[in-house]
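Example (one chain per record):
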Amino acid sequence: MEQRLSLITLAVADVARSRAFYVDGLGWAPLFEAEDVVMLPIGPQLLLSLWSVEGFTAEIGEPPAAGLAPITLAHNVRTEAEADAVLASAASLGATTQAAVRRDWGGYSGYFQDPDGFRWEIAVNPGETGAYVLP
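Predicted structure:
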């Protein structure tokens, strides 16, 4: 197996609501849309799939767990001002946010939750790792 990831799928309660947040709100452009799924390009050869809970359950064979997902999605930016602006934009869309702060690991990050509670870290990551993840 090659060391790469092709899709990240999030099971969402309301595809139209999630589409409104990501497409209409954040301004992301879908690659594919159907009644129960929206697929968004988020990196070279990487898609974010917003899939209805019903469709997810039918294919996987069991419903997703309830509660806090033990995962975060991260979006790195170049400056603290840019991190603050992204968090402010998410807040303007109704997202719950956690203000960015300077972290012990040397970076600066904060969080917002999408309409289904998936947490996005908005981060300035100094050094080699930050340079690797930014286009």
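Caption: Helices lie at 15-25, 53-60, 80-92, 127-133.
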